[in-house]
Design a protein that fits this description.
Elements lengths: L3 E7 L20 H10 L5 E6 L3 H10 L3 E4 L7 H10 L7 E4 L9 H14 L3 E6 L2 E2 L4 E3 L3 H4 L7 H9 L3 E5 L12 H8 L9 H11 L3 H23 L6 H10 L9 H11 L3 H8 L14 H10 L1 E2 L2 E2 L2 H11 L4 H25 L3 H12 L1
Parallel strand pairs: 1-2, 1-4, 2-3, 5-8
Antiparallel strand pairs: 4-7, 5-6, 5-7, 9-10
Helix pairs in contact: 2-9, 8-10, 9-10, 9-13, 9-16, 10-12, 10-13, 11-12, 13-15, 14-15
């Protein structure tokens, strides 16, 4: 029986996206989960996920679905280093391997099955899926090409190498636009998921909203820091099995203080963003000062923004203990305000414990580790 391996590179920085692509949610799973399931639906058992950037978060997702992870220590060199790391780790007797980046979750199992049939029939050096005259992913690459792949990378990467070393090429027509769709940008991700998940403005769209409402720079910097904290917590809980809508959470974080200089700014911010056409984002913003009882005991976009906001003083991360001590000084002699401050921080403490229970890591450790990387 032909032994075929699926290779899924998930090692990159996601720099153009701004959010960690493998851990973004789709309709009912994460991006990486969907890509893995595309292959398991076709009966493939040998699946290699190449990790690199934030491997400690990506690898658990792959392993939960039975995939083997391969760490690419040279992930900063780009995609070709992941190709080479995967080729070195291919199971013995592998005859060919699929190469499908994790950020292409729209490829269908039907496409995989057609490529498998083409390889079984003719054993080409490479079989490409083709849609409307364009080659896409994943190519199915014969193990015969592996020695050439392991040589030094040439300009043009894998595409040029295959053009030079693949003698027999098969193009397989498919009715699958997903072979041409990747999630390189937040706009591309939003276009893919909005039919299934709540709509949200991208980071660039949030910046335009700041300009429209003349948000002061200091408030913008605070919201950006809150967004970093909230999205980092979302990455960790998604890695641990949850499906937080990171795009929505980022947008809510970047806009939560849009009306900060006005009375009842959380409610005003909710109304502004709802009127702009993003009611789900507005709902999260409306909860960032006072969290409704309905969110007690669960981790949601609402609770993560609430917690991240309490962990961010101005433009720096602080512990809840620091916030409490500062609040005790600030509200000394004002018993009602002091009681309200304590109540809100107690809510944040409960959320932080829930996050720690899921991730097996305290929120302070998560944020401190990230802050250390940025120094």
């Amino acid at each position: 029986m032909t032994r075929i391996t699926a290779v899924i590179p998930a090692a990159g920085y996601s720099s153009r996206m701004g959010l960690l692509k493998p851990l973004l949610p789709l309709a009912d799973c994460l991006v990486l989960e969907k890509t893995i399931r595309t292959f398991t639906a076709c009966g493939l058992k040998d699946i290699l996920v190449v990790t690199g950037h934030k491997a400690e978060l990506v690898a658990p997702v792959a392993r939960r679905l039975g995939a083997v992870t391969v760490f690419n220590a040279d992930y900063d060199r780009g995609m070709y280093a992941s190709v080479q790391a995967a080729v070195r780790a291919l199971p013995q007797h592998t005859e060919a391997f699929f190469f499908l980046p994790a950020d292409m979750p729209a490829v269908t199992p039907a496409t995989i099955k057609k490529l498998l049939a083409a390889f079984t029939e003719a054993a080409p050096d490479v079989a490409y899926p083709v849609h409307e005259g364009k080659r896409g992913h994943p190519p199915l690459i014969s193990a015969k090409v592996c020695p050439a792949i392991l040589q030094e990378e040439k300009p043009g990467g894998l595409k040029v190498l295959l053009e030079e070393h693949a003698g027999i090429v098969r193009e397989v027509p498919v009715e699958d636009p997903g072979i041409l769709q990747d999630l390189d940008t937040e706009d591309a991700y939003r276009e893919l998921v909005v039919p299934f998940l709540a709509d949200f403005p991208t980071a660039a769209m949030c910046a335009a909203i700041w300009r429209q409402y003349r948000v002061p720079p200091a408030i913008i910097r605070h919201m950006q820091q809150v967004a970093r904290a909230a999205c980092l917590l979302a990455e960790h809980v998604n890695s641990s099995g949850l499906h937080i809508h990171t795009g929505l959470l980022q947008a809510a974080s970047l806009l939560h203080d849009i009306a900060r200089e006005k009375p009842q700014h959380a409610e005003r911010g909710r109304q502004i963003v709802t009127d702009l056409g993003y009611p789900a984002v507005g709902e999260v913003i409306g909860c960032h000062m006072d969290l409704p009882a309905a969110f007690t005991g669960i981790i949601t976009e609402h609770t993560l923004l609430y917690l991240a906001d309490k962990l961010t003083a101005g433009e720096r991360y602080v512990s809840l203990e620091e916030r409490l001590a500062e609040g005790e000084r600030r509200f000394w002699g004002r018993p009602d305000a002091l009681s309200e401050m304590r109540r809100r921080l107690q809510q944040a403490l409960l959320i932080s414990r829930q996050v720690a229970a899921v991730t097996k890591c305290s929120v302070e450790e998560i944020l401190r580790a990230e802050a250390g990387k940025c120094e």
